[in-house]
């Protein structure tokens, strides 16, 4: 599995996040068919995984957590009923 930085392809999403939220840093990644949006503000990190075609696999969630969540932090995982959208929230 590889996280591929596709932020430049989502410039309107990034601008929208920066202008309408407290976010100071936004990155968009591709993990195959799964999109990963990483948002950081002064008090939290938010990561959203979304896949329109299928349920997000546990291996994908673990991979993203390992790569993007600081090791010394605890996190809260929110999963929708179809497991197509997952949010990871990390307090700083």
Automatic annotation (TrEMBL):
InterPro entries named among the record's database cross-references: DUF1827 (IPR014959), LMG18311-like_sf (IPR038226)
Origin superkingdom: Bacteria
Entries under Pfam families matching the protein: DUF1827 (PF08860)
Name used for this protein in its record: DUF1827 family protein
């Amino acid at each position: 599995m590889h996280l591929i930085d596709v932020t430049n392809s989502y410039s309107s999403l990034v601008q929208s996040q920066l202008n309408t939220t407290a976010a100071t840093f936004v990155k968009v990644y591709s993990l195959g068919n799964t999109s990963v949006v990483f948002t950081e503000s002064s008090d939290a990190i938010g990561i959203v995984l979304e896949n329109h075609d299928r349920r997000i696999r546990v291996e994908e969630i673990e991979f993203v957590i390992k790569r993007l969540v600081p090791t010394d932090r605890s996190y809260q995982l929110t999963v929708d009923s179809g497991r197509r959208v997952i949010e990871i929230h990390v307090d700083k």
